[in-house]
Design brief:
The protein is of the alpha/beta class. The protein has helices at 11-22, 34-43, 63-75, 90-98, 111-145, 158-171, 187-196, 215-223, 240-243, 259-271, 297-302, 308-314, 331-338, 347-355, 361-375, 383-386, 408-417, 422-429, 433-443, and strands at residues 3-7, 27-31, 48-52, 81-85, 103-106, 177-180, 205-209, 248-252, 273-275, 282-284, 288-293, 317-320, 344-345, 380-381. It is built from 19 helices and 14 strands. It starts with a strand and ends in a 5-residue tail after the last helix.
């Protein structure tokens, strides 16, 4: 419940305002003068102040009220203040509004007008407080990230910062980490960050793309092979697990691993022991496993394509890296990072970059900027140099039906861009706040 402080030396005025606000579920505290009002503000937080302009008998200059207002503004610069007086002076009112007063109303006031002003200010105050909390949280997250080795990871979006924070936190344990997200989003770089901040950071970081090898060679790549184990195996070779002993093994596109390989991988994760392909001697290693996928592993489990026990073994901690389109604040910092020092973006290029949906994610963005830097004739890169398709207007959504409402990812991205301010997110999504609240509740999205 919001709380208003009324500062007025007339008990009848204080009682009338207290009654009016109570009818609108607003808690009201009263003070009979400047000193008691400032004391009340020092004791507890308020959402709004309604103050008189004259306190001494036979005084109509408003000097006391102006002094009180300026003192409140100095001590509480973000606290909205409504000025009330029976003696209106237009010039004084204009000066104080310029100085930050929220409104200046004459006594006797119109209840509807006063309540409209109060409700608008309370909503604005709550929005500012929510934004301040989000900004403070973001500053704390960035300060916390400063303690870690981010391997030069460029980011500015809150969603990326949240993923980085989680990755750095779990890096200190030896639990397996599963990084999920679309191709080209930066999953391998996230795995490098986990390794760089882990207890085995001094050990090797070995990466294997499970989707880049034929199925009959993946086991040999993982576990090694003895001489003659398969056609072309002219000598014994160690696998990735041996190469990563004492460090981290990153398994990209883990969803492409064949079922036979999944069984062997599960055993290694559980025991730390394995045999080379074609061999009998059991070997033992100590390896931190980080895996990544763009596949829907739970759906693959339902289809019998991925072992459920392996999934839960790999997914002790999941770090989700969103698509680049869902973290738009990263686009321009990344674009500038990919450009050589002698090239820069003009305004048209920046607009084009922000308008593009980036289906290829960070990889597509990097390739686009590298090509533009090569082909642009001058030092300034324009939209035409990027070679991006013209933005296509989104189809108009139907007036009813959940199929045309924004999905969970779209809503979460809008909330993140709005710094957690739901009213701003609703405006971006073209929805009323009430509709956004209903959608949030239906999808189970947590409200900050």
């Amino acid at each position: 419940m919001p709380t208003i402080l009324v500062i007025d030396d007339n008990p009848a005025v204080a009682t009338a305002l207290e009654t009016l606000f109570a009818l609108h579920d607003i808690d009201t505290r009263t003070a009979d003068g400047p000193q008691s009002g400032l004391a009340a503000l020092a004791q507890m937080p308020f959402d709004l102040v309604v103050q008189d302009m004259n306190f001494e008998a036979d005084t109509t200059s408003g000097e006391e009220g102006e002094a009180l207002f300026r003192e409140i503004r100095a001590r509480h610069p973000d606290l909205p203040v409504i000025l009330l007086t029976a003696w209106t002076h237009l010039e004084a009112a204009v000066d104080l509004v310029k100085a930050g007063a929220a409104d200046y109303l004459a006594k006797p006031w119109d209840d509807r007008k006063l309540m409209a002003t109060v409700n608008n200010l309370l909503e604005l105050s709550q929005t500012r407080q929510q934004l301040a909390r989000c900004n403070a949280g973001e500053q704390r997250r960035r300060a916390a990230l400063g303690e870690f080795d981010l391997r030069g990871f460029v980011h500015a979006d809150p969603m990326t910062a949240a993923a980085l924070t989680l990755a750095c936190q779990v890096a200190r344990s030896d639990l397996p980490v599963l990084i999920t997200g679309p191709n080209g989003a930066g999953k391998e770089r996230m795995a490098e960050i986990v390794h760089a901040n882990s207890p085995v950071a001094a050990g090797p970081f070995v990466a294997l793309n499970c989707g880049a090898l034929p199925a009959d060679l993946i086991e040999a790549e993982l576990f090694g092979a003895e001489q003659g184990a398969y056609t072309g195996a002219n000598r014994a070779r160690e696998g990735k697990f041996e190469a990563a002993d004492g460090g981290t093994l990153f398994l990209d596109e883990i969803g492409t691993l064949p079922l036979a390989g999944q069984i062997k991988l599960l055993r290694v994760l559980e025991t730390g022991r394995f045999q080379r392909l074609g061999g009998n001697r059991e070997r033992e290693v100590k390896v931190r496993v980080v895996s990544a996928t763009n596949a829907d592993l739970p759906m693959m489990i339902s289809a019998g394509q991925f072992r459920e026990d392996l999934y839960y073994r790999l997914n002790a901690i999941e770090v989700r890296l969103p698509a680049l389109a869902q973290r738009p604040d990263d686009i321009l910092p990344l674009a500038r990072h990919f450009l050589p020092a002698d090239k820069s973006l003009d305004a048209s290029a920046e607009r084009a970059l922000l308008a593009h949906r980036w289906p290829g994610n960070v990889r597509e963005l990097r390739n686009t900027l590298q090509r533009a830097a090569l082909l642009a004739r001058g030092s300034r890169i324009a939209a035409a140099d990027l070679g991006l398709p013209a933005a296509v207007a989104a189809p108009v959504a139907a007036s009813n039906g959940d199929a045309h409402e924004p999905d969970r990812a779209t809503i979460e991205a809008a909330i993140a861009r709005a710094g957690g301010v739901l009213a701003q997110a609703a405006s971006e999504l073209g929805m009323s706040r009430q509709a956004l609240y209903r959608r949030i509740d239906r999808l189970g999205i947590a409200r900050e």
